[in-house]
């Protein structure tokens, strides 16, 4: 159906466009124009002076809606996707936490199937672990953690094209060989759960580790050993000019001051916003039933209150936090949730900006940065039509 979205502030790659329109048909953006004259035959959607922005790219999310992606079933994948889609995540890379390779293979099969469906929101799979530094990985995954084993990961990667990102600790034996193999296949390879210092980060970057997962979390900063001081992983990543980062901008994992610092030093083009969401994100069902965890202060913690376990945020919450708490301009906050992750994970030819020929993934935000309407491939997502009704 030919649709024309009018009367809003449109975020384009060149900046805000006022009083223009976005013309959509057959799941694609036909045109973004500075004219709001009615197009004959088009259904008009009045944005009522709100913000018209590109759909968000969720490139690190473990679950939502009461399900976890390691459930590895179509039902779980679809429930999580629908939960986050209502909050503006129009492209999702399901994240699998450390688990067995049998579960990884089951999830790959589900992901392959969903990616073949027309207008799929699932864009590829993201694996975190099981190749993690045990000292930096907490207690959640202890039974699964190991060093990289090419006899495991090479057959898996050669069996599918759906794996688009894989995060491991770069200091492990065999990690650099892993990165050379994965990055050589076009897979975004990220450092995570690490205590690496500058020489290791530099050599890891050269081997293919080009991204830092949940920056600042599960990695040390500047520290001291005996009488000498050393840079941490955080400072080392800052020194890698071309290494991209992601931040969990839920307002709890990182304070607003650190979010401002990342924005200032890494910039919009090198910073992605991620939820790192667990199964209790975007979920109104029963309360948490796992004795290992508690939900408190808007985040999931280990029950002993010694560390954070993961967020319960959705993508819209990240944008709100960056704007309202960190004081980042809305355009830049949206770009870090859409344009930058699309470029980093390799879908910028289809996603991330409102431009002619790209998929019609569109979010309308009100003045308080609340989601009022979501379009996925030009179709309004059920339950997000508060703009119209």
Automatic annotation (TrEMBL):
All residue ranges annotated as the Amidohydrolase-related domain in the record: 51-381
Parts of the chain that traverse the membrane: none
Cofactor(s) named in the record: a divalent metal cation
GO biological process: N-acetylglucosamine catabolic process
Keyword Hydrolase appears in the UniProt entry: yes
Keywords: Carbohydrate metabolism, Hydrolase, Metal-binding
EC number in record: 3.5.1.25
Keyword Protein transport: no
Source domain of life: Bacteria
Binding site for Zn(2+): 128, 193, 214
EC category name: hydrolase
Residues involved in substrate binding: 139, 217-218, 225, 253, 308-310
GO molecular function, one term: N-acetylglucosamine-6-phosphate deacetylase activity
Entry's family note: Belongs to the metallo-dependent hydrolases superfamily. NagA family.
Protein name: N-acetylglucosamine-6-phosphate deacetylase
Species: Candidatus Bacteroides avicola
